[in-house]
Amino acid sequence: MDKSAGATTLPFDPALCQLRVGLEIHQQLATSTKLFCPCPIMKSEELPLSFERRLRPTQSELGQIDPAAVFEFNKGRVNLYKWNPESACLVDSDEEPPHPPNNEAIETAILMAEILGSNMVDEVHVMRKLVIDGSNTSGFQRTAIIALGGALPVDGPNLVQVGVQTITVEEDSSRVLKEGAQAREYALDRLGVPLVEIALDHVVGVPEDVEAIALSLGRSLRSTGRVARGQGTIRQDLNVSLLGGEVVEVKGVQKLNLIAKVVRYEATRQMGLVKIAEEIKKRGINEVECKAENATQVMERTTSPVLKRILQKGGAVTCVAVAGFGGLFGLEPFPGIRLGRELAEIARTNGLGGVIHSDEFAKQGVSEQEAIALRALTGFDSSAGLVLVAGETAERVGTVAALVVDRVRRAPIGVLGETRAATEDGETKYQRPRPGAARMYPETDIPEIVVTEEWKRKLRMMMPVPWKEKVAAYSKKYSLSEEAALQLYDSDNSRLFEELAGKLKLEPSVIASMLVEIPVRLSREGIDESKITAEALSAVLAAVDAGRFAKEAAIDVLRSIGKGDARDVDEAVSKLGLTGMSDAELNKIIIGVVQRNKALIEDKGERAFSVLMGEVMKLARGRVDGQKVSRLLRQAIDKGA
Ligand SMILES: [Zn+2]
């Protein structure tokens, strides 16, 4: 089946293809309760209650049905919602009307509007936005525009600022627990958490510009001190188009440093589809002729292991034949970019494992005789391309085959407007057709909120210090380098830093580098970052400050806590054998090392120092401070031990 992953780096020059990217960020707010109910904001580990619901597309007041909604409905899934009364209520399950919106959230959005010079609306109207993927129990998401226009100053190589389109407050969707072919499972703890959505003007430029914009916007939002931190609390959506073509919406980039990679991948994918479309036209195909036939009987004795497995379970196979498409499904204008992969993604989104196309028949064990029989079945000649859609039920196979036919018919267009999801490795995968425009209608359960002049005046008094000033102030007050101050601001630990710098004897630069670097290093090692809590960091730094172990051992202590090997600092210290070392013990190690390396010292003199230092530190295993070792070691070398 065509399901291979693409290459990681791709040849691509955005300057040549009018790359346009619009950025939309969704930032969770650190309010005490959800947006339309009094539930606290927390992640529930246990979800003992559940209910099932199948959503149907309803006509909006404009009398139109959203194509994306119909698509979701056609997939015929049932949604299972799991919840815990500690983090969800009857509002979340749509059994009770929403309460008036959380004022803190509205105020935070107004503050953000002030920061971005955006024009506040006079009245906030809550609207319903149709979402039928099941991520909201009611079938719609509540959303309210707070401000329009404005500009975000950008700290980047090519841009000075970017225009703001809208600032909106909305409710977050449910958390996806499991995505199956027939059912999806959601947790209601995240449903209704307030988000601020900021949509920016598109930029024409390079992928790195988009990342710089997102970074600047994130810093501005954090300056309010009112946004949630940690993984999954900020999500970026990207609207990407090329050469003036259709806009593709890429949803859910969770990591800032993936944005440029995702943009680059998506632009390359689009360029690849344009090149495939050119090849189709070169073959003289303007209108694609294709046909789907039931091929279950023809493939009855197939040699393909994948198909054999499906047919043994009583499954079905449909063959889609496409005139003149031989060689086009496997054509790869850029590494990993193929029409075959696009079709496989559509199949996967609709509950099948993928598709098998004629350019990979040999690889998939479909014989030459079978290919001839399939062509005879469809009445197409050997220049046709074939796509086999197989699955356990004829109904699902039929649905997917129809989608494959539809996709192939539109291949001469090149890029199709669709919604895709960002993957964790910086690529994008097909999700659904792009939603239509008829998606909003008023939420009649909630009266409008008037934004009075007095309220705005009060909020202007609460305007936060701009992030650049905050960073400069850190740098000055604590004698940190500008880079260190910025890293600290970007980390989750700037508030903890201020607290610790005020109370510990350790140098602020040491505290800053430990707070910034240790969590990053541990997270790269795969340790759950939520386990490296402010309490744990604070306890470890206090222990270093008290001389219980060297700062070099702090990461070992936190790793041990993060992995769950130790419950707290005391247990980690005893498990790691980090009880402090006496001066006599340390001197014994130093003298040993110096004596073993006499030849090296005579040979290299001062340059031997770092080698010796490394050896002593290794033997002392974090039980002593590096500076102390350095001092004693120098004395020992000078004395010739
Ligand atoms: Zn609730």
What would you say this structure looks like, in words?
- With 641 residues, this protein is of the alpha+beta class.
- Helices cover 37% and strands 19% of the residues.
- It contains 20 helices and 23 strands.
- The strands form 4 sheets. Strands 1, 4, 6, 7, 8, 9, 12, 13, 14, 15, 20, 21 and 22 form a 13-stranded mixed β-sheet that branches. Strands 2-3-11-10 form a 4-stranded mixed β-sheet, with no helix packed on it.
- Helix 11 crosses helix 13 (508-524), helix 12 packs antiparallel against helix 13 and helix 19 packs across helix 20.
- The longest helix is centred in the middle third of the chain and has 24 residues, at 259-282.
- The N and C termini lie far apart (69 Å).
- Zinc ion is lined by residues 34, 37, 39, 88-89, 91-92, 192.
Task: Please describe the structure with a list of short key phrases separated by commas or semicolons.
37% helix, 13-stranded mixed β-sheet, alpha+beta, four-stranded mixed β-sheet, disordered N terminus, binds zinc ion, 19% strand, 641 residues
